[in-house]
Every structure is written in structure tokens, then in C-alpha cells.
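I would like you to sit down with the pair of lines that follows and say whether C-alpha cells and residues agree.
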Amino acid sequence: MDELLGIDVGATGIKGGIVDLEKGELISERFKLPTPKSGKPKDIIKVIREILLHFDWLKKPVGLGFPAIIKGGKSLSASNIDDSWIGFPIVKEIQNKTQGPIVVINDADAAGIAELYFGNGKNVKGTSILLTLGTGIGSAIFYDGVLLPNTEMGHLKYKGSIAEDHASNSARKRNDLSWEEFGKELNDFLNHVDFIFNPNLIMIGGGISKKFEEYSSCFSKKLDVVPAKKYNNAGIIGAAMAYKIYGKKKKKK
């Protein structure tokens, strides 16, 4: 299995692409559709099916990154989507529409897997953390290359509310922060993360990673922070890799 479709479900868009699993690169054009405003299961699953139809991928294996805690085939949280996803049998219901095997994983964990295999997280010993800064803050934690799934650092209690209210890209836009102001705000949060987890490396992912040089000068020198290499394609690439990793394990049972 050298090629596989990866899909990344985000708060504003749902993106898909065919991934070369050996190189960790898209070998098709990225196809993106708007995330339905309702955020409800029926509407989002319909868009996922449309992406499969676009790539002529029905009945074929799919890896899917989704903005929720994923456990036992169910979505157990709802980050920037409708609350009806909480407790929803996501794997079963998507398979009913796509007619093929699927692995569903937390979207930030998917992005982290892309960096682990093909980016700056490769061969990092000890603890490494990817933070995806977008509508919220997603997180993926690895220890010696092993994923600790379903962490939610964006929901850490922080400065009287939660972290993503202050250090996400949407917070930057909402508060009309300059890059320097945002860099200082993000630095505060990264120091908070460093105090709790003491990671050897922190990677900044999401579209904002392309602007890393605009705000990284504000980071404390004690922090080892780098931009994610796979940028906005990390979620698609990591979702496809998740099927390769976890789909095979399921078949062996």
C-alpha cells in the first residue's frame, strides 16, 4: 500500500488528497470543501463522501483526521463542531456512507504523525509536542516516537479561561494582534507548556507555521521551538499514515 487518501476535517474546511506513504507527500491536488455551518454529523459526513467521490475512492481505505477525542470508534468531544458529535459512532456511520475501511484519529494527532515520520519530529528522543494553531489549539505528544493520543492542550485552563482563547490564530485575529504581540502571547503559553511537560522539542503547525519568522523572535531562548515542515498538508498526510499504522494492526486481530 503505497498510496492512500487522507482527509483532514477542520472547523472551516474539509481537505483531502492522495498521499505517497513512502515519501509523505501529496501526489494529487488538494481538494477542499467548506465545513458545513451546522457542524452536525449528517452534514459533515455528506461532505466527506463528496471528497471520496471526487477522488473516485469509494470502497477503498481512508485515513481521517477529526477535531475530537476519538476512542472505541466514537467521537467523545466536540472542538469547534456541533455537540451532537459527543458519543457519536463516527467510524461506523462514516463507513456506512463511504463503503470502505477507515481509520479515524484526532486531527492534531494526525498532523503530529506527519511530523513524526516526515518532518522535524523524526528521530527526536524523549518528549516532543506539536501544537497546531488555527481556530483552536490542537496538540500531539510523543515520547521516543510513541503517540499519547487525544491530548487537548488548547483546553488547558489558562489566564482565567482556556489556552486557545489567547494563543490560537483565531485569537490573534480576534484581538487584532501584531505579530510581535502575538509572539509574546504565544511565548507565555509555550513557557506554560514547557513548565508542565518539559519537552525536548515543540513544533508549531497549522497554516500559521508559514509565518514562523514573524513571531519566533519573541520566544524564550530556553525553548526549543521549530515550525512544522508539512504546514497545512500535515493533517492529510498524517491521516493517511494513521491508516497504514493502525489499520494494519486492526487486520491482525
